[in-house]
Design goal:
- By secondary structure, this protein is of the alpha/beta class.
- It has seven helices and five strands, in the order E-H-E-H-H-E-H-E-H-H-E-H.
- It has a five-stranded parallel β-sheet, with helices on both faces.
- It is globular, with a radius of gyration of 15 Å.
- The termini are close together.
C-alpha cells in the first residue's frame, strides 16, 4: 500500500492524527522529526543549533527520500518539509499527500505554550506564526492531493481522514 503523507502547519495535529489513523488502519506511523532525530543522534533543536536550518533541511530531504521508498506508512512530516518542492516531488505520484487544514486562530491556541519548536522560541512568536502560516498555506495546498479539515477533535479528524481516503483495516 502506498504511503499517506500528512502535511500542514505546526500544531495542526499531524502526529496525533497520524498515530490514531495508523492504529485504526493497520499501517505503521512515522513522525519525520523523530525519524531525523534517530538518524542524526540529535534532537531537532540541536541540529538547528549546530547546523542551522539549512543543515536540518538537508537531513529532512534525505528522510523524505528514504521514507518514500517504504510502503504502508502514515508519515507526519515536519511543518516545513512540504514547503520545499523537492520534498513534494519525492512523494508525488506514488504516495498520497494530505493537508490537515486548521485555521490560524486555532493554531495560535494550540501553540501558545510551545517550548519545543525552534522557530517559535522568540519574543515575537505570534508575528512569526502568522507570517509562517500565511507563507506556507499556499504551498501546502499546492502539494496536497487531499485536504482534510483538522479543527475538530482528534477522533473526528482521524475519521474524516480515513473516510476521505477510503482507508480500512
Amino acid at each position: 500500500m502506498n504511503n499517506i503523507i500528512l502535511c500542514g502547519f505546526m500544531g495542526c495535529g499531524k502526529s496525533t492524527i497520524g498515530k490514531s489513523a495508523a492504529k485504526k488502519t493497520g499501517r505503521h506511523f512515522v513522525d519525520m522529526d523523530e525519524y531525523i532525530e534517530k538518524q542524526a543522534g540529535k534532537t531537532v533543536a540541536e541540529i538547528f543549533a549546530e547546523c542551522g536550518e539549512e543543515g536540518f533541511r538537508e537531513l529532512e530531504h534525505e528522510a523524505c527520500t528514504e521514507l518514500s521508498k517504504k510502503r504502508n506508512l502514515i508519515v507526519a512530516t515536519g511543518g516545513g518539509a512540504l514547503t520545499f518542492k523537492r520534498n513534494v516531488e519525492v512523494f508525488r505520484g506514488t504516495d498520497t499527500i494530505v493537508l490537515l487544514d486548521v485555521p490560524l486562530r486555532i493554531i495560535r491556541l494550540r501553540l501558545r505554550n510551545d517550548k519545543k519548536r525552534p522557530l517559535l522560541q522568540r519574543p515575537d512568536r505570534d508575528k512569526v506564526i502568522t507570517e509562517l502560516y500565511n507563507s506556507r498555506m499556499p504551498k501546502y495546498l499546492a502539494a496536497a492531493d487531499v485536504v482534510v479539515k483538522g479543527e475538530s477533535t482528534p477522533l473526528k479528524t482521524t475519521n474524516s481522514l480515513i473516510e476521505a481516503l477510503n482507508l480500512r483495516k
